[in-house]
Amino acid sequence: MITLLDRYLFRQLAGALLAVTIGLAALVWLTQSLRFIELVLDRGLSFWVFLKLTGLLLPGFFAVIIPITTFVVTLFIYVRLGSDRELVVMRAGGLSQWQLARPALVLGGVAMLACYALNLWLVPASQAAFRGWQFEIRNQLAAILVQEGVFASVGDDLTVYARYRDPDGTLRGILVHDARERGAPVTVLAEAGRITSTPNGPRVTLLNGVRQQVERAAPPANAPPGTPGVERLNVLSFAENSLDLTRAARPVDGRYRNAQERSIGELLSPDPAENIPLRDLRRFRAEATQRLVNPINVIGFCLVALATVLTGEFRRHGGGFHLFVGIAIVVALLALGLMANNLGARDNALLSLVWLTTALPILVSVWVLAGRPGWARLPFTGGRRAAADQG
User: Fold this and answer.
1) Per-residue pLDDT, 371
2) DSSP letter at 327?
3) C-alpha span between 113 and 97 (Å, rounded)
């Protein structure tokens, strides 16, 4: 039965969780989106496109921070209630430990379901859209968005420069440096040209130019073994020439998708036709395990906060130690979880450690909240003072 106190506690917890989660996600988004500001400055993309591109990162941020923010909110709200003696009054009214913890556990359950929705559906979809869009911008559209007087890089092996652009889109004073063919870079200079979009990617049509390529000729037949070939510069003048600016030879649909872009089904049972390396298969299984386990950490961290706060004596200015103990435990759990996941990615037989690091805090916290004998004698629960009083 839902009581007035349940609504009161749940309203405080839910409001704080919403505010902290949105604020922290905005902060993380701001720091991470700075990596893509060059797409606006160097590639000529509009700020609106930049916002839509980086906005696709938000589901991944929420999936990571919700377990942490749930713990932080639960810990701080209950410590504040204890410092204000509200928990003392609630206990005096006959509420048990589990009745006090019920609103936080309900909120944790809602947050856990939200994490599952993110991990199983929204995050893979947003990551696939983000990486596909990023690939298209960097390898296809970047060449179309050539800015006058700017060296525009399409990947690390193709550079396009135009001195200025006519109102009709014609480029003047063009330089193209193409290093996609290993060992035989090509430099093209042209008076004018125009970039057009084709099904296979952008293509530049150059007029009245020179094509320069350095080639290594074979050594003479009578040369001693091991003699390197002679480098030779080939120069070709042309009236019209076309050059594909697509960085990759394969189409966008053939882009290799990493673990974050795949659904749970694709991670656990990938298509054999993709010929995925064994190393990536191990990473896929580790990613699938992490998606299934991470939402459960919401309940685990919430129980850790409750076990830390509700099992001790409350003093008006004595909540700092509870905060320290709870934060230290969760930091240790996060470190153990990260280590277990890294080990599991290398050897899938160790993925059971990921489940262990998730289940252990839940079991221990339930044991503590149930008031098991011996726990009350631990120093940070207030048992030391109780023992002294009995003496």
Assistant:
1) 74
2) H
3) 24
pLDDT(353) > 80: yes
Q: Give the range among 145-154, 177-186, 223-232 with minimum mean pLDDT.
A: 223-232
Q: Are 278 and 318 in contact (CB under 8 A)?
A: no
- Cβ count within 10 A of residue 74: 28
φ/ψ of residue 227, rounded to 5: -70, 125
Angle, vertex CA 137, rays to CA 134 and CA 139, nearest 5: 100
**How far apart are the C-alpha atoms of 27 and 65, rounded to whole Å?**
11
Cα–Cα distance for residue pair 31/29, rounded to 1 Å: 6
Please check whether residue 104 is in contact with residue 13, taking contact to mean a CB–CB distance below 8 angstroms.
Answer: yes
Spell out the alpha helix ranges (H) of the chain: 4-33, 38-41, 47-55, 58-83, 86-92, 97-117, 123-136, 142-144, 264-268, 278-293, 296-310, 320-346, 352-369, 383-390
Beta-bridge partners for 121: none
Predicted TM-score (pTM) of the model is 0.69
Residue type, 71: F
Contact 193, 171 (CB under 8 A): yes
Residue 80's Cβ-count burial label (10 Å; 0-12, 13-18, 19+) is middle
Distance of CA 181 to CAs 214, 339, 381, Å? 11, 41, 68
What backbone torsions phi and psi does residue 138 show, to the nearest 5 degrees?
A: -80, -25
Kindly report the number of other CB atoms within 10 A of residue 239's CB atom. Answer: 8
Phi, psi of 235 (to 5 degrees): -120, 130
